[in-house]
């Protein structure tokens, strides 16, 4: 086995069950084991076993049940690697009944890749913001540019940042841009000129990049951002130009409080306050803010959207501090 196609999934809504079926049915078409791919789903939320049995899908998967209170992601990866018997089936690892954030499943999939000596590991959100075919195109592109000599991380660029807006009181496109500024500041500043799309929901790393990753004490929501910073600080190669098309998003497991928690965890880990990030965004918007959401908006509206995020974060911190 050379390549892992990893999905992280919160199994709860009807659409998430549909997505799990799509992953199982899509394995042989898009990531067939005879091409040295193995598909792994790191899953929390509902226990999928009753559903898999009811739908007649249990024979198509290798099911593993690991309780997170028994072991860390690294330990679960170690135990899983010793239990790895059916690589031709979709591997479903059920690790928690409650969501544990985005970092835990990312760390788990990277650790499994290291334990199995995988050449490449892709980690995708399972909401199919990108169609299955687009995920495979991205993987093929990554394979065409990676080599064993340098660390490589690939972030596909969304032709359109398709985001669920729902009842969000903030501009989600602006929030992504503010989060990306942390990467610009904390890694190689050449990334500023690249304007990479770090939050497409899909990252692909090769073995050399994975060997250098460390998630110790990283907040539960910022693993992907931290991964980008680590690889770039180690002078790894960033692939950022490959463009993909996206599906409309009508549902998201990331709510406003989660996004504010991400900002707070970035502050706690890197000690850069959001006020500094906002100052950069408003002082040099052409450098730090994407044009996709700013086109057609007045400068006053752009400033108001950025300030609204800062104000909401301040309110979030005050709620946390309240007795």
Short description:
With 323 residues, the chain is α/β, with parallel strands linked by helices.
What would your notes on this structure say?
By secondary structure, the chain is of the alpha/beta class. It has 13 helices and ten strands. The strands form two sheets. It has an eight-stranded mixed sheet with strand order 3-4-2-1-5-8-6-9, sandwiched between helices. A two-stranded parallel ribbon has the order 7-10. Helix 1 links the parallel strand 1 and strand 2. It starts with a strand and ends with a helix.
Strand order in the largest sheet: 3-4-2-1-5-8-6-9
CATH topology of the largest domain: Spore Coat Polysaccharide Biosynthesis Protein SpsA, Chain A
Helix-residue proportion: 40-55%
Q: How far apart lie the N and C ends? A: 52 Å
Overall CATH architecture of the largest domain: Alpha-Beta Complex
Question: How do the strands and helices of this protein lay out in sequence?
Answer:
Blueprint: E1 3-11, H1 14-30, E2 37-45, H2 49-54, E3 61-65, H3 73-82, E4 90-96, H4 103-115, E5 120-125, H5 132-145, E6 152-154, E7 157-158, H6 172-186, H7 190-194, E8 202-206, H8 207-211, H9 223-233, E9 237-239, E10 243-244, H10 256-270, H11 274-283, H12 285-288, H13 299-321
Parallel strand pairs: 1-2, 1-5, 2-4, 3-4, 6-9, 7-10
Antiparallel strand pairs: 5-8, 6-8
Task: Give short descriptive properties of this protein.
323 residues, single chain, 2 domains, Spore Coat Polysaccharide Biosynthesis Protein SpsA, Chain A, eight-stranded mixed β-sheet, 13 helices, two-stranded parallel sheet, 46% helix, alpha/beta, globular
